[in-house]
């Protein structure tokens, strides 16, 4: 009996050793979790203590020596390095605002006087607890001052251009719990402002620096964000009655300053794009059926922080697969990127990192298994054709409504060529039928906010037609704008069912062909694009052609060596 137990134990130990060795090989190859943590962090079945099938397949593949579709690629390193941010960027932004504000005052025959006063963000706790949420600066304040700490105020003398920072006077206990209490001189040097004083001295300091005979004038930030329909919060200080206040002048002027990007701003947006593009490619390489959507989200978040120094993302990651890819803003608390990926799924991953406030917004769509099916190619290429048509047409003076309609028309033409829709394209456009497949707008301004403000300048009204009413801007393009180009094609029951019942739109749909795409989900391709003097520049660097995506997912380095591939194809064709 004792001998039998010993033999069983030996067999178990040998089997365990083989599995351990296999996982160790995988860990070493992919720089993953230590074996001691695998059981804690890998997903498990609810009814057993065994690893889920994905992990079992990985082990079996390693034991057999076969490559298998479950074997992950190594975690790629990055050649990128987080850049030093020049505070001249924010000094330039302040100077830009002062010049624009002076021009506005002069044009309306008003005296050039007063102070711009902004209040930075406050640290927030989670509901009634003492858990401090990760702080991110209020965007207008970040634009002008670049301050990353909470509790600051900032002011600019309109007449002289002189800049002030007002820092909170911290209690002595701060040094015990949160680190060294920095003196005002530290922030003066860090943020390149003219004067740094404590917040409790704000009223006295502004009065001392005012040459006005009466109350000093404060230009406060108050205006509507046309994306959120929320209003910006004007600075709130004690003894506001000691100042005259202007709540209407500053917001439209400062918002317009943010629309046109400087070279230093563009460098940061480009860096955020480079890091995010790299992370998207890492996700492409590591995706496998059997994984959870949130595992791909975690790969992206790890890469942009580990290699890019990006602590914040521009928005909540959308990691949608299968039918979820038709949910435009998937990834929220009620749909938290938690579906198991299946063979044959399309993936739609909309993720972007932020570096020193400036962000990126990139969407890649691709098959989970790395190989496009015929139906997937049809929809993907329809969206890619729209994406490329817009990029070829963008230049200063072009109206964004026209670009949206171009994308819609290109998608409809592609769908008609495949027999998915039928009828006259122009009539479809008149009926706004394109919104059935692309209900969102083509793109939005990008900068310190994902949906950067300024899309609807004063006097511009939002359209009311389907599709067009979702546009975040209808402006003509100008040089140095940064805008996303993100056409999509989705099969959304909430839109398709009414369209099939409507006697006007039903005649455009080939119901037999539509059945093939009932559970398809959707495709979106999104790039961040700079408007140049004579066209545009795509700041995003991800594989877009179907063959590029398949090559990268199979392990080819990115960017691809197109010349080498062409020569190889030529040799094989010969």
Automatic annotation (TrEMBL):
It catalyses: Xaa-L-Pro dipeptide + H2O = an L-alpha-amino acid + L-proline. This is Xaa-Pro dipeptidase. Belongs to the peptidase M24B family. Eukaryotic-type prolidase subfamily. InterPro entries: Aminopep_P_N, Creatin/AminoP/Spt16_N, Creatinase/aminopeptidase-like, Pept_M24, X-Pro_dipept-like. Keywords: Dipeptidase, Hydrolase, Manganese, Metal-binding, Metalloprotease, Protease. Its EC number is 3.4.13.9. Its cofactor is Mn(2+). Pfam families: AMP_N, Peptidase_M24. GO terms for biological process: proteolysis. It comes from Ensete ventricosum. Homodimer. GO terms for molecular function: manganese ion binding; metalloaminopeptidase activity; proline dipeptidase activity. SUPFAM superfamilies: Creatinase/aminopeptidase, Creatinase/prolidase N-terminal domain. Residues 85-229 form the Aminopeptidase P N-terminal domain. It is an enzyme of class 3 (hydrolase).
């Amino acid at each position: 009996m004792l001998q039998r137990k010993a033999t069983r134990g030996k067999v178990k130990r040998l089997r365990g050793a083989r599995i351990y060795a296999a996982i160790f090989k995988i860990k070493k190859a992919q720089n993953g979790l230590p074996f001691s943590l695998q059981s804690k962090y890998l997903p498990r079945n609810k009814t057993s203590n065994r690893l889920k099938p994905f992990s079992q397949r990985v082990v079996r593949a390693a034991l057999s020596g076969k490559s298998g579709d479950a074997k992950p690629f190594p975690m790629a390193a990055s050649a990128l390095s987080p850049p030093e941010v020049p505070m001249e960027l924010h000094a330039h932004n302040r100077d830009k605002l002062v010049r624009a504000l002076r021009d506005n005052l002069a044009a309306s025959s008003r005296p050039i006087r007063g102070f711009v006063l902004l209040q930075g963000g406050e640290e927030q706790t989670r509901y009634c607890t003492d858990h401090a949420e990760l702080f991110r600066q209020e965007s207008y304040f970040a634009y002008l001052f670049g301050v990353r700490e909470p509790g600051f105020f900032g002011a600019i003398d309109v007449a002289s251009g002189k800049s002030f920072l007002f820092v909170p006077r911290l209690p002595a206990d701060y040094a015990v719990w949160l680190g060294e209490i920095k003196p005002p001189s530290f922030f003066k040097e860090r943020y390149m402002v003219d004067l740094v004083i404590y917040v409790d001295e704000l009223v006295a300091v502004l009065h001392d620096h005012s040459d006005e005979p009466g109350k000093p004038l404060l230009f406060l930030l108050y205006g509507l964000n046309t994306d959120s329909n929320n209003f910006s919060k004007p600075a709130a200080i004690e003894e506001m009655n000691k100042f005259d206040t202007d709540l209407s002048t500053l917001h439209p002027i400062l918002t317009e300053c943010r629309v046109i990007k400087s070279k230093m701003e563009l460098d940061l947006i480009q860096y955020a794009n480079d890091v995010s593009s790299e992370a998207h490619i890492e996700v492409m390489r590591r995706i496998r059926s059997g994984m959870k959507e949130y595992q791909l989200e975690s790969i992206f978040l790890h890469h942009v922080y580990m290699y890019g120094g990006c602590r914040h993302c521009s928005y909540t990651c959308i990691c949608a697969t299968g039918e979820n890819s038709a949910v435009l803003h998937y990834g929220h608390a009620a749909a938290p990127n938690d579906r198991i990926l299946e063979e044959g799924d399309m993936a739609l991953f909309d993720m972007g990192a932020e570096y020193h406030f400036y962000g990126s917004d990139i969407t890649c769509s691709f098959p989970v298994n790395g190989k496009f099916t015929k139906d997937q190619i049809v929809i993907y290429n329809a969206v890619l054709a729209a994406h490329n048509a817009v990029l070829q047409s963008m230049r200063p003076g072009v109206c964004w409504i026209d670009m949206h309609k171009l994308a819609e028309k290109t998608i409809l033409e592609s769908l008609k060529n495949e027999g998915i829709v039928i009828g006259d394209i122009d009539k479809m456009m008149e009926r706004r039928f394109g919104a059935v497949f692309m209900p969102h707008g083509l793109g939005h301004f990008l900068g310190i906010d994902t949906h950067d403000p300024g899309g609807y300048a004063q006097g511009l009204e939002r359209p009311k037609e389907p599709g067009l009413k979702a546009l975040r801007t209808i402006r003509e393009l100008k040089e140095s704008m940064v805008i996303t180009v993100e056409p999509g094609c989705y099969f959304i029951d909430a839109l398709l069912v009414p369209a099939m019942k409507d006697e006007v739109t039903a005649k455009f749909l080939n119901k037999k062909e539509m059945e093939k795409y009932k559970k398809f989900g959707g495709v979106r391709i999104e790039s961040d694009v700079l408007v140049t003097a004579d066209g545009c520049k795509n700041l995003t660097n991800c594989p877009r052609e179907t063959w590029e995506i398949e090559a990268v997912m199979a392990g080819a380095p990115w960017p691809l060596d197109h010349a080498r591939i062409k020569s190889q194809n030529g040799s094989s064709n010969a």
